[in-house]
Amino acid sequence: MVAMVEAGASGRPGFTRGSGRPKPPPLRLTRRGRVVLAVALMLLLAGLVALLAPASRAADPATGAPATTVVRQGDTLWAIAERQLPGRDPIAVVAEIRRLNGLDDYTVYAGQQLVLPAWR
Predict the structure, then answer these.
(1) Does residue 108 contact residue 71 with C-beta atoms inside 8 Å?
(2) What is the C-alpha separation between 15 and 17, in angstroms, rounded?
């Protein structure tokens, strides 16, 4: 059986007119290659986001001291989050307050001093 080979304008298979070089085969990725490429692109994107996103620091830019608040009678972390950082997502603020202060649960006590996120 004879295989048919498409000839370029020059009459020679695989060559294009005037180039003198063979035409490269089309790029084909295997499933593994597509996965590796997708993971590499996601890692690159995550790295760019990490570099460009402002770091949350618990410091007052004017004095360099951490921004703090004292828990009032009847306060909850939610109330503190809404009062100290209005306009921010209270769930994220509460999580950050807990992380900054090493709180294992949501219990706070009147008179307790809490470090606040520096998302002003």
Answers:
(1) yes
(2) 7
Share of the chain above pLDDT 90, in %: 42
Question: In the chain, what are the domain boundaries?
Answer: 68-115
Beta carbons within 10 angstroms of residue 88's beta carbon: 15
Q: Distance (Å, rounded) from C-alpha 102 to C-alpha 119?
A: 18
Question: Would you place residue 98 in the very low, low, confident or very high pLDDT band (cuts 50, 70, 90)?
Answer: very high
Q: Where are the alpha helices (DSSP H) in 53-118?
A: 77-84, 90-101
Give dist(CA 84, CA 87) in Å, integer: 10
Report the Cα 56 to chain-centroid distance in Å: 14
114: β partners: 69
Q: How confident is the model at residue 21 (pLDDT cuts 50, 70, 90)?
A: confident
Query: What is 68-115's CATH number, 3.30.465, 3.30.390, 3.40.1000, 3.10.350?
Result: 3.10.350
